[in-house]
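Lab notebook, bench 4. The sequencing result for the construct came back, and we need a structural model before the next group meeting so we can plan mutations. Quick request posted to the team channel:

Model the 3D structure of this chain.
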Amino acid sequence: MSKKNVAVIPGDGIGPEVIKATLEVLEQAAPGEFDFQEVAMGGNAIDKYGEPLPEFSLKTCQNSQATLLGAVGGAKWDNQPPENRPEKGLLKLRAGLKVFANIRPAKIFASLASACPLRKDIAEKGIDFIIIRELIGGIYFGKHETFKTSENERAARDVMEYSESEIRRIAHVAFKTAMSRRKIVTSVDKANVLTTSRLWREIVEDVSKEYPEVKLNHLYVDNASMQLIKIPSDFDVIVTENMFGDILSDEASQITGSIGMIPSASLGENNCGLYEPIHGSAPDIAGQDKANPIGTILAGAMMLRYSFNMNKEADKIENAVDKVLTDGFRTADIYTEGQGLKLISGSQMKNEIIKAVKHA
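Done. Here's the predicted structure in token form:
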């Protein structure tokens, strides 16, 4: 039986640490199943090849069944020209893989409820929703330019553009996801101001007719950001465009207790996805064994589930993470003193999860 081919991008900062931990967990959950191919991308690729995503790196990812990414970027490359920053490599990768749907769960583990920054009565109602963000359209992929006005003053513009087909395909992802959950979709836009949002709302309403069991709500993005803080338990599936999704998903990660805990999957027309934690490269703690690997490990579990239909193995990993947290093990980012918890390093966290997977 041939092995599953996975491109692995360790990236920068803590990326290599959390990726190494994740590969070890995956090997424990599914021994001998994978052929991992390391790929250069980000600041390390700039240092070695002069660009954030060389064409041969992109080709390796395109020819793989899935891509697992650590994190890229850091202050070291802040002086690079805008078109050559590590983040440009990430945009090029998303476009090259044609992954238009970013799926980011926001779930608070019962054992981490005390880490939630919201009031206790709000957190106790539970947080368990998914943000589905359109990933390769909108203002991030529109035309960007600087120019001189008629008064010879410098000005700049960034163009937000969406086609009907782009909106329709991301809406279908949202409604299909809701069908396997609580059957509620909240579409977030700014239809009172933006023409793109008015088209967005029209198309989402049209798609909703194909899913009569799903309840559809609309919220303006400013109101959505407030409601996520006020009543997060009301949300099931949120669907929104690229920039709004970028902002709201980071807000969602914070109300669950730690940005280090949240994975994400980016999918296209087939199952060949891009999987990564939502945290950054955190160069200030790189090499100190302080990085929480759970977000990346859970991204690996998402890869098993979405790209390889290995639900049993994905369950093993997710249940192992839950068990380790319930047993009181914490990395520094989720540790609270005086609660009888056990403060451990990133590698120790990985070892505890491997033990839990082994005995699952």
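The mean pLDDT is 94.
Will bring this to the meeting.
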